[in-house]
Amino acid sequence: MNTSEYTEKLKALANKELFGDEKMQLEKEIQENPALAEEFKKHLLAQELLEAFISQDLKKKLNTFPLPQEKPESSGAVIRKLNPSRYKWAIAASVSLILGVSSYLFMENEYSYQHLANNYVPQMQEVRGTNLVTDDILEKASSYISNNKSEMAIPLLTSITLDDDRFFIGQLLLGNAYYQIDNFSAASDAFIQSSKSADEEVKYQGQYSFLLCELKLKSWSEENQRLLKELSENEFFIYKNEAEALLQKLKIAKYFN
Amino acid sequence: MNSSLETMDLAAAIRFGGSKREQALSSLYNVTGLFFKIKQMVTSHGGNEEDARDVFHEGIITLDRKIRQDEYEDRGSIESYLYGVCRFIWSNQLRKNKRVELKEDFTPYDQSTGENPLDTMLNNEGQNMVATLFSQLGDNCSKILSLWKLSYSMNEIAEEMGLPSGDNARKHKFRCYQKLLGLIDNSPELATNLKNLG
Q1: Considering only CB atoms, which chain B residues are within 8 Å of A199?
Q2: Which of B88, B120, B152 is the last residue of a domain?
Q3: Choosing a second label site near B90 at 20 to 30 A (CA), which of A26, A54, A96, B122?
């Protein structure tokens, strides 16, 4: 092979464009020939420099883009956010919320805390992560909960430990699972854990769901009321409107509980 | 999204390179709510909107490079992956600046694999060396080589650079590449300094 041919092949190898026998042959020659190995390092460095230049160029281009200005969808659009084929339970719950509110006035004990809680259910968010093993667990658990098989989701979710970066989302799902089987005490504990997340979406959802558990357990307090008020005034909480509506009803409900 | 991207997801389009990559990056930039979520993460941990913009941009640059170098695995959505990268970038920045005490769960992503998305990023000195080198290489050669690196065809490069044909573009690319190797030969400190990352 002449110098020019070597240059082309070394360039191709450095750019990951050489395959099969040709690649193996050249790699063998590089291992056996120190001068060739030095030459190959130059080509690798050339590729590295080109990557760095491309990154700098991309940065300049991105700086010319106007920043996206949109806010997340309001809580009224929460049904559209969820993937219908995976979260039928959450959607059914959301629909039942709307129907429940309209039939609300015709039911007995309509202002009892438990009855109020019946019209507001914890919402389940789509979970996708960057850790393969935990992703599998979360997606399987979501699917079980959607298919009313919470008892199968629970052992999966309790296996996610605190050092996992998806722990708090796992706790949110765990709370949903316990809630579904009417274990409001365990659900409450899980939602309290999820509310410690630094991810505000998870944190506020955990807080809100914890409050729904408190209603179910008939242990409503001034502290709960204060927390609900905060959520109802929080522009970044996606269920702000639901929290506001519940707060209004609780103003009346306190006379019946 | 451009109809040609409908049959190809964003990661695949970036990997494909050429103009499809440009379209995919633009689409990713404008995914509904993505920047807002990143901004929330940054501003709730001691940053401002400008910090959020920088983190978002660095995240996209890192993701682009990882995909093109086959270091990105298609698990979960690309938007979630990008969010994870941005979280890591910001947590790393905070640790460097010691601005804010990090909450216990604000951890880098992919800790189990030990993967560090900042492994591919240069420090300021490295960035300056790259900028100097490519200014010596010249605008035309810099552009031809970067288009070639981004998998544009020779005909596309010819069109972009106003050259008469793909063959002509190929000759220019060869000469520019030789020029780059010559500059590397004349800058032995390059290899050493580019090893000092982050």
Answers
A1: 41
A2: B120
A3: A54
